Amino acid sequence: MTSQVGSQLFRRHETYAISYHTTVLLLPLGLYMYLKHFNQAADVFTLVFYYAAYPTCLVFWTILCRISPLHPLAHHPGPFWCKTSKIWWGLLTLRGYSHHRLRALHERGPNELPIRDPDTIGPLLGTSGVPKSPSMIGGTLASGEREHLHRRRPWNHAFASVAMKEYEPMITRRTRQLLDRLAEQNDILSLGKWLNYFSYDLIFGGSSELLRDGDANNIWALLNHVIVFENLILHLPWLGPYIGSIPGASGPLSTLVAHVHKISLARIERGSSTRDLFHYLNNEDLPDNPPPPTKQLVDDSILAIVAGADTTSSAPLRVIPCLATHPEAYAKFQAEVDKFFPPGEDFVALPEFREMHYLSKCPLRLYPPAPGGGQRKVPADANPVVIGSIVIPPGTCFWLHVYSLHRDTRNFTHPDAFWPDRWLVASGRIALSDALPPTSVLAPSSQLQHSTPSSKRPHTPTPVQEFTHNESAFRPFSHGPMNCAGKNLALLELRMVVCAILQRFRVTLAERLDPRDYEKGFEDYFAASRPVVPVVLEPRGATSHHFWLNEGGTVYIERLLLQLLHTPADRGFSFLIGYKSLQDTLKQYEENPKYQWLVIDSETG
């Protein structure tokens, strides 16, 4: 009887307080000792037996309740162990492949709990939608929904339209610094490492200089450990207080907190030299408001690193491998970059960034920054949420699984394909018959890195009537008022950084990359992991910095002298001969564009 009461108490009052857990677990023992007037050694055996039986019965009644046909979610299919406890799924997330597992489950059952039906996105996540679950609020290091809403306000200010304009000079400056550091690397490099440094420095303004000094404190190694730990706690939130109370159990998190605390204090002492994210988190834009407590600033800084720097650095890294393994898509995107930002011209955050469909949408659809989306919970004291045939009872948590939404054949034709042209076809910019054929990221590398262009290889065209493109299902940054607060900043950074890199460098893979290996290395720890992609960066195109070193400078002076000596007819004849010779030479090296560059290699000649 006591175990039944205990299971109902845990079911009706979900809390992560150790004191509550202790009360429910130890109160029956206290009552037993009181009623039995425990004072005899002979009662020890009975007491041990009773207390072994109590938790066993507690677990039994809990599992029985969850698998019972009377349970509110009994009609929703799913794995047996998922119905009994979140421990099974929490352990699965440690491997990083939960997004693949969840997508496979969706293929076998209806689109419910977790949900991948795009028609539910507005009602569930919109203005009058369902609030975030306690575990998601805890993930932002807030103690409850009210505090979460209060602490989100400065984040909304920080990413408003006015603030975004203020970030552009800072992002431009950091991007130039990134390009200069990349240009100094003469060998194979890990692009992800430098993008990590860029994002981290951008979050903390001038208080961090990883691009200049390197990661001497191993911040990103700590962050990778913390993300795995935090992802487990996201699914088993009741476990967090217990692990946190064990000395040394949360070592990497404690080290990261200490480091961020030090940087935060330095940033507070330095004051506001730039209007960075910290400027708004510290209420520096509201001089009449007192600054928040230091602990809140540290908590928000950690959140900015995990949800901001980590996901932002991963986004450009999704674009590069996709383009490098699809040469024709790379060429089309390079033409789009050169159209708005010719080599040698400075890159700025122009409105044209928003028109560059090739840049962000396709990689973000295949590899969203947070594949699992965000967990929501219908309040226990609210009415059931009814959307069509879906009924979500009070007290129920659910996920709108972004990865499954993006890779559903009902939302996107060829869902596993890197096919940027799908967005151009859907917007009416090109006809379906003119689009490059799609190539699955699950295909062997031999089908991608092929001597014959994909447009000339045999393939089955996609019939117009079978082309599906559901824009409402594209939600890499969630939806509604509780979506990713830094969405606009992430997209601006993504577009500016990728455009700047491709404007200045030709990116090639250092090793033959099999897209299937990259797909396997894409792991979900709430924030997606970043598979290592070694690349080689080669300077592209002539600039004023290189021009004087080339023959062009000599020829230019020579032509000025000849202009003084020859008649207009002679000059016209020489022009025709030279122009024809230049055309023939460029055509000769058409298959090897690097021989057309006007940049001297002083080492190899």
UniProtKB/TrEMBL annotation:
Gene Ontology MF annotations:
heme binding; iron ion binding; monooxygenase activity; oxidoreductase activity, acting on paired donors, with incorporation or reduction of molecular oxygen
- Specify residue ranges for compositional bias: Polar residues: 442-455
Q: In which pathway does it act?
A: Secondary metabolite biosynthesis
Names of the cofactor(s): heme
- Which domain of life does this protein belong to? Eukaryota
Query: What Gene3D superfamilies does the record tag this protein with?
Result: Cytochrome P450, Neutral Protease Domain 2
Q: Where are the transmembrane segments?
A: 16-35, 47-64
Q: Name one Pfam family in it.
A: p450
Alphabetically ordered keywords of this record? Iron, Membrane, Metal-binding, Monooxygenase, Oxidoreductase, Transmembrane, Transmembrane helix
Q: Annotated region Disordered: where?
A: 441-466
Which InterPro entries does the UniProt entry name for this protein?
A: Cyt_P450, Cyt_P450_sf, Cytochrome_P450_monoxygenase, Peptidase_M4/M1_CTD_sf
Question: Which family does the record assign?
Answer: Belongs to the cytochrome P450 family.
Put simply, this protein is called Cytochrome P450
